[in-house]
Each structure stands twice: as structure tokens, then as C-alpha cells.
Amino acid sequence: MISSDTTPLLQHESPASSSKKHFGVTIDQLCALVDDNHNPKLLTELGGMMGICQALKVDPTVGLAPDESFDPHYGIHNNDQQYHFSERKEAFGYNEVPSVPEQTILSLIWTAYNDQTLIMLSIASLVSLVVGIWEDHSINHPEDEPKVGWVDGVAIIVAVAVVVITNAINDYEKNKQFRKLTAKKEDRPVKVLRGGISQQIQVCQVVVGDVLFLEPGDMVTVDCIYIEGHNLRCDESTATGESCHVKKNAIDDCIILSGSKILQGVAKVVVIAVGENSFYGRAMALLRDAQTEHTPLQHKLNVLADQIAKFGFAAAGLMFGVLLVKLLVLSILQDHWLSTRELLTELVGIVIQAITVIVVAVPEGLPMAVTLALAFATTEMLKDNNLVRHLSACETMGNATAVCSDKTGTLTENRMTVVSAALAELHFTNRVEFGAWRYNVHPVALELAVEGIALNSTAFEGKEDGDFVGSTTESAMLEFIKRLGYSYQEIRASSKIMGVYPFSSEAKSMTTVIQMRECNVVSSTRNEYRVYTKGAAETIVQLCSHYIDARGKIRPLSEETRVQYQLLVNQYAQRSLRTLALAYRDVNKKTYQGFHTDDPPLEDLVLLGIVGIQDPLRQGVIESVQTFQRAGVFIRMITGDNIETAKAIAKESGILTSGGIAMTGPEFRALSIDDQFRIIPRLQVLARSSPIDKTLVVTRLQQLDEVVAIVGDGCNDGPALKLANVGFAMGVTGTEVAKEASDIILMDDNFNSILQALKWGRAVNDGVRKFLTFQLTVNIAAVVLSFVSATASETSESILSAVQLLWVNMIMDTFAALALATEPLSDELVKRKPLCKRSGLINWRMTRMILGQATFQIAINLLLMYHGPAIFGLDNSLSEDRKVLRTMVFNVFVFMQVFNELNCRRIDDQLNILRGIAHDYLFLAIQAFVIVGQILIIQYGGLAFKTVPLSMDQWICTVAIGSLSIPAGILIRLLPPDIMPWLWNHSNHDEEFKHTVSYARLRWESAMDYAFELVREKKKSRAVDDAAAAYGFITSDSHYTL
């Protein structure tokens, strides 16, 4: 045990005394080690790596036990064991970084109320309440009239409270959805050693003392100390700011900081700090108050909302000025000056009307609509196995014009099986031949291949269900040797690995060096060390100088034999099989000592054989590709596989079409920039591609003004994922680095999920546009109607009262946002082309509908206001009839919004506005709620809303007039753009993106090439016939005889 007085301590909020009580080291000591990881003295004082392991009560060879009295000589083989580690968690904490505290309903209510216009309206309503009470109790108040002067003030206060509480509840539900999404986003599996067994657990279950396995592409979320490994290099830029790659080992630099990315090599490490005590956790704690992410669409809507608010303030200011001047002019003309109480009452009424106009005109619902749409979409996308990391990606995906997809696991099932193999010049092509092959193949070649597969791999058999954990390719190979009757665990346990060169996309191979022992396979070139390699077949075959023949003898690899193996690789590839070559090489100690630590020794290899791995096409991929193509999205396959395999899968899935180009990454990279721009519109398959090729393709497409989505899985795919407009990382086979660089994680690695992301992206954009169309219509109609009716009436009173307008405001803000921005998906979303980047928020169709509906609603309501008595048979001189008329106008106005909301379900020129409404349960529920609310307001809200109950005939009449919004919408949709040419300009029309080369053009070019080829063949045939006739040959059906 190391005494604390000899170790420099840093003050951290942690239960140091608790950790010292149960373990030989405290959190403070471990944090000090992390904070000063280049101080060898501090590490020595703690006893080095082994001293820390002893203090943490962990044996690095077997990992943690289920309890602290575990005997390391016996493993844990009971799958039902539970690992709680309560003392360890109490001493060193949980692996959870505290998130931003959840906002309570009360805090959200305060946030919703913290709006200038609502505060102004509240103040004005309080003044109205005071004045009303004053009037009710003044000596001038008639005794036969009820004292209801307080009603207006109280009604407005209650209405404001309802608006605020509704918005707060809405925000609470939205935040709850985002918190669930964040929790899902931070959950990831890690490989640990516990009880002597390798297994996968969730990262939140990791505790101090756990032994972890690190591989290329891993994101380290805990602080660790290096135990053993091979050629480990880390990117610590996110932790330290240093961009250089750091090499880790047990001597020079053994501390691995949380937040680091594993770029190269493998290692076994011990966890020394987790959660808020880790380097990353303490840094994240400082960012808890970071501002919320805003998407481009939210920024656009905020700008638009500000512009509309200016219109509202201008209208309210003008209304206030006009009514004030009108009051003054009437007083002068009538030579009747109001008393102080009457003047105050009039002024308060004018102020309330003006502020209410501002409340209605300011579109608070616009930012809320996109937030609701994104919250709804991201939650639903998670059900479709799309985990959205960046909200902006959701809306950007809606206008994607190109998708660059990987092959393995995305287009295919990632369920790999070895179905063909050739070892020592003997091969099988199906399961029937496998039984005879395994007994006839030369035993030395077979055992060398089995040993190479077992040792040159990082996959292992899972603890729970027996499935292999790790790379699916390696899992298929381990399953293959299991079918052959070998145990990879026994081979690994009896062998000594000296070095590992993990798979890299550049070398297209993985290499392992072992020290020879008596138990290892004996070959004719047996030496002190052996190199095992597996990788891309065409690459490894070129690196081999010898091969093993059918008799198990090592022979020089002649060009003729090399060509035969290459032909075999092509045969496998044409069957859509993934091909791997297995090779080895025995070396002496001197040669081994000359191996470079970074570059694998791939010279003078002995070829063992070729393996063909089947990975079937996913169900539904063909249909998804066709849907993408109909939606105007160009699909490209970018894969590291063999060109023939890639072409076979691309043709099967429909990605490679007639006229399309398939080539390798090096070939494309070698082209000039002009040729790249000429080729890329027709490029559909890029095989044997590296991460550099992916980045190059994305760059070239973006330079053609395309919106590019790309799928990546490797740690080197980070730059391409970051560069693309939308980066998809594979959730199952993808590395943590790829996931961190991505915008959306495919939880099932499924290509069909990308199509769902496209649909949701378009649904978000459409939902916001629908809401925008609806809200701007209500804004214009309500503001103009309030202004005209107030300035034109004798009493300077708007036809719509302040409380009525607040109810309308709730309908058009919160309820409309919920109804229109959260509609379910439909197939019509992918029956149109993507829009150009320069397309605006409001297109000419939306403008036409907004202006048309607003004009219609204003005209109808003004008509009713002035000619209603004649239409409805009312007497305008009677107070009760005037109240009935105002109530009917209010009812007509509200039901115009109810029916216009149906209109706004479509923002194109299609007339079927009820399409899919039977499945839009939220829309139907909200519409029902608004209708019921309106009925209650009319029939029972008299004092507060200044309404009177209507008769059945009056209800039928007002609802019928309100329903005229639907035929009006039909007529507006039928208006051609030529009627209003001033609406048609570059700023407000949707321009569909046009690919440089479309699928139709590719088919046309292919057909023309075929036709020209037929013409050329015909001309060539005629020329031969003419030549034959000239020299006296007799021709018959283009076959010539003397």
C-alpha cells in the first residue's frame, strides 16, 4: 500500500477516504496520475502498473471477479454470474458523466412566461382588472347592472396562464424525448476481461479495476493504464489539444486518457478512473451549461419569425396610434371629454387590443414547430434504427442527392459464412463437397491455415449465447475452423504472440507474429518465428513468392500458377463472395529483430490458399435502391472489396445500372481532376477504396453542388463522415471513432434504414412548411381583421376580443405545431426529386395559398361583420343581437382555421387533402380537442370570451361558412402561376435538383452505345463480305469457305 503523504494529491470531489478504506489507492492519487501522466516519479511511488493493479485488487491476467475474494487460479464459467462491485462503485464512482439537470415544469413555465409581449399583456390585464373593479364599486355604477368589470382582466390573465402552461408541458415532453435520445446515444458496448473470460458489457457498467481490450477505432471513455499490447497509437487531440499521434507502451507513456481515439494497434489496459472522476468526465462537467444546438432550419425560422414580429409590432403600433387619434377626434367633434376613469378605461382597452395583436402576430410557434418536428422525427427514427446524433442531419437528409453506401453489413446481411475454399490446390465450392474436402486436403496445409486463422484474429466466442464477438469476417473464419473440428481457444492458449499488425484499409491485411513452440504446426521451413497473414486475395497473392502444393510441399509461385489463383479469386468474386488469401512465412531471430514496428513484414510469403465468404444481400435492398432512384437520389457503392465482388453485388441490388461505371479507388485517384469530374456523375461502384478515396468522392460530389450522405465504419472514415453533409456510421460493426464523427448511427447497419432517414428528413421539412402556411394565414387574417374592425367600429372595439384572439393564438401555435409538424410517413415523400440548396422556406405555392386563404377569410368575416344582420336576420340595434353576431363571426373565424388546417396537410397542388388522415391520430385528436373547446367556449364561456350560446341553426350556418375554406383551397390550388406572375421568382419557388447525369440519361447512352456497336458490327460484316467476294470466296451467313 502506498502512503498518501508521499503522493501529490489533486483536490477532486470524490470519496477518497472510502476508496482508501477498501483499496490501496485513492481516487485523488489516481486522478493525480492521470493529470500528470508524464511524471514517472509519481507512477513509481504508486508501484508502477503492477502496484496499481494490486492496490485495485485486480489480476490483469483474469480481470475482476464477481466478488473481491476471487481466486485467480480458477475462472468463472457460470453464465448467470452477476457483477455488482458495490464497494468498488462506492469508492471510485459510476461510469456516468452527470448531465445537465432536468428542467422542472415550474422552470419551464417561467421560461415560457419570460416573453416580453406576454408580460406586457399581463401588466395591461392587471391594470384592466384594477380599473374594472374600480368601475364595479364606483358610485356611478348602475345598480341594475351586474358587476363584471373584472372579467376581462381575469379572463386575459387566465388565458395567458393557459398558453404558458401548455407551452411548458409541450417543452417538457420534447425535452424528455431528447434526453432519452441522448441516453441511447451515449450507450455503447466495450470488450472486457472478467473472471478470466472475454465478454462484452455496456460502457456504463465499466468500473475502476476492469481490464479492457482496445482496438483500432475505439473511443476510450475512461482513464486507463497500459498492461500489454502491440504498436498502440492514440489520438489525444480531444483531450490535450495536441494533434500528433501518441505511441503508448508500458515504459515511456502508459497512461491512456479518456476521450482518446485508438488509431492503430491493440492493447490490454486497466481502468483507473471513470465517470466524473475521469479526465473526460471533468472536462464535460465544465460544458454542462453549453448552449442548445440549433439547426439551419431553426435559424431560418428564427429570422423569419423576427421579420413577422416586426410586421406585428408595426400593425399594433399603427392600430394604437389610429385608435388614440380616433378617440381624440371623436372627443373634439362631439365636444365631449371623458372623465379620468373613462379615459383610463378606454386607454387600457386600446393597449390590450394592441398588445393582443402583437401576441397573435408574433409567431412563437415557428421555432417550436421545427423543434417539435425534430423531436418527433428523431424519436420515430430511433424505432427505425436511426440514432440521430446531430439534429441538423435529420433535416439535411431530406434533400440528399447522393448516397455513398458501404457494401458489407449495409447492403448485405453481415451474416458471413465460408462456402468455398482452396488449400494446397484442393478446393470445395459448396457444403456437399466440404465433407470430402476436409479429409482429402493435405493435413500440413490445413493445420497451418487453421493455426493462422485462430491466431491472426481478435474475435472471440461470446459468453452468453456462444456467438462470436468481433469482426464478422473473422467470426466467419473462426466458425469455419470450428466446423473443421478445431478449437481456437486451445491454439491461442498454447501459442506465444510476439506482435500484431491490425487490419488497415491501406495494407488490406492483418498480420500476427508468433514465437515457435513444440505445439505449433511443423513445416518444412520451420524456424524460430512465424508470420501469419490474411487479407485481400488479389493483394496477398501478389506478395507471395511460394505456395503449398497438393502434396504439402512448398513450391515457387510461377506466373502461370499466380494467374490461376487470380482466376480463382475472380470466379469467387463473380459469385458475390468475399475473398481472403491466407499466407505465412517462417523467419529466424535476426530477421524477426529487423521487423519494423509499424509496417507488417509482407515479403516472401508462402500462399496457403483462398477462402470465399458468402454474405447474402439484405432483404428489401433491391426495393430500397429502386425507391431511392425514383426519389432522385443517386446511389453509389464504395467498398474495400474486390472489384468483381462489388460489381456482382451492385448488379444484384440494382446499384450498377446500364451505362454506369465501376472502377477501383486507386484508378479513380490516379485520374486528373477534369477526368474525375467527367467520370463521377456516372460512377456507381468504387471498389478497393481507401478512406482517402471516400473523402475524394465526397469532395467532388459537393463541388457539383450535391448534398452527400455517406456510410462509414472504420476509424479512418472519420474525415469523410465529417466532410459529408450527412455521415452515417454503422452501429453494429462500426468503430467508436466513426460513430463520433457521424451525424446518424445505423443501429442495425441496414441500408433500408437510410431510406427511412430520407423519408423522415423530408417529413420534417414538409411539416414545418405546412405549419408555416397555416400560421401565416391566421396571422395575416387575425391582424388585418382586428385592425380594420377596431378602427372602423364606433366603439373602437375589435370584432375579436383579446381573450378570443388568445384562443386563436393557441390554435395556430401549439396545437397546429403538434398537428402539422408530427404527421406520420407516407410513400409520397419519395415520389419527388430533392430540392436545390437555394430553395427558400416559402415557395410560390405556399405564398399563393397564404394570400388566397387570408384574403378569403378577411373578406368573409368583414362581410359578416357589416352585413351579418341582414344575412342572419338580426337587429343591429339590439344589444343581444349584436352579441350573437360577434359570436357567430368568432365561430366562423375559428372554424375557418379548423378546415384550413386540413388544407395545409398538403403543400403541393394535389387535391386529396384527406390522404392518410385515418392514420394521423394526433392530428385527429387535436382537431377534436379544438372543436370541443370551441363548443364549450361558445356555449359556456360567455363572460370571459364575450360570447353568447348559439342555436343549432346558427351552429350549422357558422360551421358551413367556415368549411368554405376547403373549396376555397381547391380553387386556389387550381390557379396557374401565370395569374400571379409576381409570385414566381427565384426566391420563392422550389427548384428540383438536376443531376449532371441522370439514370434516364445513363440508360439512353447505354442504349445508343449498343445501337452504335450493332451498326459497327454490321458495317464490319459487310466489309468482310465485300472483301471475300472480291477475292473469289463464297460466303454463307458470315462463314467463309474456299
UniProtKB/TrEMBL annotation:
Q: Where are the transmembrane segments?
A: 117-134, 154-170, 308-330, 350-377, 842-864, 921-940, 952-975
Q: In terms of domain of life, where is this protein from? A: Eukaryota
Q: Which reaction does it catalyse?
A: Ca(2+)(in) + ATP + H2O = Ca(2+)(out) + ADP + phosphate + H(+)
Task: Tell me which EC number(s) this protein carries.
Answer: 7.2.2.10
List the signal peptide residues. none
One GO biological process term: intracellular calcium ion homeostasis
Task: Provide this UniProt record's keywords sorted from A to Z.
Answer: ATP-binding, Calcium, Calcium transport, Ion transport, Magnesium, Membrane, Metal-binding, Nucleotide-binding, Translocase, Transmembrane, Transmembrane helix, Transport
- Has the keyword Metal-binding been applied to this entry? yes
- InterPro entries, per this entry? ATPase_P-typ_cation-transptr_C (IPR006068), ATPase_P-typ_cation-transptr_N (IPR004014), ATPase_P-typ_cyto_dom_N (IPR023299), ATPase_P-typ_P_site (IPR018303), ATPase_P-typ_TM_dom_sf (IPR023298), ATPase_P-typ_transduc_dom_A_sf (IPR008250), ATPase_P-type_domA (IPR059000), HAD-like_sf (IPR036412)
Question: What GO MF terms are annotated?
Answer: ATP binding; ATP hydrolysis activity; metal ion binding; P-type calcium transporter activity
Annotated localization:
Endomembrane system; Membrane
Looking at the UniProt record for this protein, which Gene Ontology cellular component terms does it annotate, in alphabetical order? Answer: endomembrane system; plasma membrane
The way it spans or sits in the membrane comes to: Multi-pass membrane protein
Protein's UniProt keywords contain Cell wall biogenesis/degradation: no
Which EC class, in a word?
Answer: translocase
Q: Which residues form the Cation-transporting P-type ATPase N-terminal domain?
A: 45-133
Primary location recorded for the protein, binned into one broad class: membrane
- What family classification does the UniProt entry report for this protein? Belongs to the cation transport ATPase (P-type) (TC 3.A.3) family.
Describe its function: Catalyzes the hydrolysis of ATP coupled with the transport of calcium.
Q: What is this protein called?
A: Calcium-transporting ATPase
- Which organism does this sequence originate in? Lichtheimia ramosa
Instruction: Tell me the organism's taxonomic lineage.
Output: Eukaryota, Fungi, Fungi incertae sedis, Mucoromycota, Mucoromycotina
